[in-house]
Design brief:
- The protein has 326 residues and is mainly beta.
- It has 2 helices and 28 strands.
- The strands form 8 sheets. The protein has a 4-stranded antiparallel β-sheet, with no helix packed on it.
- The chain is globular and about 55 Å long.
Length: 326
């Protein structure tokens, strides 16, 4: 018996067990099984979308799909049966929107719509009828349902970036420090847009996920308190960049990232390069990246069962619900 070979094999097995979990997990992938598809390229117009910009859910499992090009929200039940359509109005009036809408749905099915340019929030009843609107004293970037009947808004004012409002328009609290601007952009220190991301996500239980716009770092806030920071590493990640034109114009390109928490897992999707990119989802467990998967769209929601709702557009826009396994 060759004891040297046996000894070497034992050493290799022991060493393998001490390889960091993150580096070993990078090669693992997830199994995505289609569970529901909503969207057609012909036939019933209620199932035809021009552009799916957001997907949200209520406590009954109803699915709300925001089509920004058609200015409408389509509501379906958990099985994909069409329920009703909510028409959004364009214009400058109290019930009207002047800019591409951003949506948040409460567990009861009330709908909040944000108009960035007009700095206002529109509230719709469960049946889709307009209820009220309220104005904001700052420029809002993004909107999510928070918890306990409150909304969370992303925007910089009074040196805080997260602001919690009730559906009547009363502010409850503000928290979250602005992100420091890298030295290479020191001459743009007065640009508020560089101090926060252009998107954030919520678990609808008081937990918010906020990406540092300048590095792959996700801040997790729980009930207004910074609970933890998750550091990632991925070749697809690109920090916020500033572009300048020959005439002196300035543009900002943000990293596109969607983050959803479910049980002990965190699903993070990064946008790939190009006009028709393949995006990559990483799954973090206990702060470490364990799995990765290529996606052809962006997730916009996750339900109580851990099923992901992804906006896809290979030949035409559809919403696809996936069951995830490994």
């Amino acid at each position: 018996m060759d004891f040297k070979k046996i000894f070497l094999l034992v050493l290799l097995l022991i060493a393998a067990n001490f390889i960091p979990m993150e580096s070993r997990a990078e090669k693992q992938s997830l199994k995505f099984t289609k569970n529901l598809v909503i969207g057609k390229n012909s036939g019933d117009s209620n199932f035809i979308f021009s552009a799916i910009s957001d997907i949200d859910l209520d406590n009954e499992g109803n699915i709300y799909i925001l089509d920004t090009m058609d200015y409408r929200i389509q509501k379906f039940d958990d099985q994909g049966t069409f329920h009703n359509s909510i028409k959004l109005k364009r214009g400058q009036g109290p019930e009207e929107l002047s800019f591409s809408p951003i949506m948040a749905v409460t567990p009861k099915g009330e709908i909040a719509i944000m108009d960035r340019m007009a700095r206002k929030i529109l509230i719709y009843n469960i049946d889709g009828t307009f209820k009220r609107f309220f104005k904001l004293d700052f420029y809002p970037i993004d909107l999510e349902y928070y918890a306990d009947g409150y909304l969370a808004l992303l925007g910089l004012t009074n040196e805080k970036i997260i602001h919690i409002f009730d559906l009547e328009g009363q502010k409850k609290q503000s928290f979250g420090e602005p992100f420091p601007i890298p030295k290479k952009y020191s001459k743009f220190q007065d640009m508020p847009s560089l101090k926060l991301p252009n998107h954030f996500n919520s678990s609808q239980d008081g937990t918010l996920y906020i990406l540092n716009p300048h590095k792959y770092e996700i801040l997790v806030y729980t009930k207004g308190t910074l609970a933890k920071k998750i550091l990632g590493k991925n070749d697809l990640y690109r920090p916020t960049m500033i572009t300048q034109t020959s005439t002196g114009g300035v543009g900002i390109i943000y990293p596109a990232m969607y983050t959803f928490g479910w049980q002990d897992s965190l699903f993070v999707t990064l946008q790939g390069p190009g006009m028709d990119p393949e995006n990559q989802m990483e799954v973090f467990e206990f702060g470490k990246s364990q799995f990765s998967q290529i996606l052809n769209g962006f997730p916009h929601a996750i339900d109580k069962k851990g099923r992901l709702y992804i906006a896809e557009a290979d030949e035409f826009p559809v919403m696809t619900r996936y069951i995830i396994g490994n």
